[in-house]
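Help: read this over?
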Amino acid sequence: MESNNGQRIYKTIMLVIIVTMIASLGSAFGTYHYLNSTGKLGIKKTTSDNSLKGLEYTLSEFRSELEKKYIGDINDEKLIEGAIKGYVNALGDPYTTYYTKKEMAEIMQETNGNYVGIGIYMTLDKEKNAIVIVKPMEDSPAKEVGILAGDIITKVDGVAYLGEQMEEASNRIKGEEGTEVTLEILRGTETKEYTIKRKRILISHITADVLENNIGYLAISDFDGGCADEFEKKYKQLQEKGITKLIIDIRNNGGGIVDEALKIADMITEKGSTLLITKDKNNNEETTKAERNPIINMPIVVLTNAYSASASEILAGALQENDKATLVGNTTYGKGIIQELHRLSDGSGLKITTNEYYTPKHHEIHKIGIKPDVEVEMSEKEDTQLQKAIDIIK
């Protein structure tokens, strides 16, 4: 089922962007869409054929005028890419996006956990119209220079960006290994500037630990490829250490591949349990059910916050509504739509919003989020949410 696959909206080398994502990779490599009969991206050249209507004719006239009068160099590839980006952006859906050949190659690379960049997770703060850093990755250049969760990116290499320009900022932050990028950061009322060298970053999806009273702790940073296998492996390692209870931390997890979240839910829920309901543009519904007997049979608490999005919400909803976990923390982000990512014949890509998804009991998630069973606000001095989870489960 295509909608059960996913990929983070645009997790660009140095980051994972929470607001964008669950893109279907099931169709990414198997479905190819063509913009014209040659299978190549291009604008059809015309003469005075007024019978040619629509976009191709309009663009050909623009191209003709530019050739006659523009004093600079004309790069056809960039013009075409810009035209297509504008065409898709005009839909007004921040999750439906055109990716150039270079951007698409980076996305495919990132999905496999191979990153070059500065190592930050960031999201859009809609109220402030600002780009907010959710957290820096462990052992990343961003963390090494002092970037903190909650920092707001105001400029990249001296160019100012608002939240609505997050994709443009993301593209500017990306770059080759060994090169540098300068970020202007707003931290509270203080403005700081950091110059950061990009490097290759190997990503681990899961952090594991044993807490007091034989409580296992598994923090999931994202749901990219291999996450479920790593989760199972690290759970079994904790099990060998004698854990009898489990805390799953998906705070600040912006999502990723839907199948990875479903595989984890399948490890915990009873075979045949409903995990996810999706609906397409024609209101056709499809239900995903657990396919295996659970391998995890112990009390579970799931930690959530306002930056738990997409695939995180799928896992949280599946465990909560199948009575397999108690949710503690804050209401989740509320991204309940799925995108499919199609690779075009020239290597570029088109990510399209195709489905809305619902919890097993058919509760809507999009722009609403999932409310925890026990709401706990974070303290600046200590992790009050984790402490509450420990108190509940022990």
User: Anything to note?
Assistant: The first helix runs from residue 55 to 69. Residues 300 and 325 are 5 Å apart (CA to CA). The domain at 114-202 is CATH 2.30.42.10 (Pdz3 Domain). The radius of gyration is 22 Å.
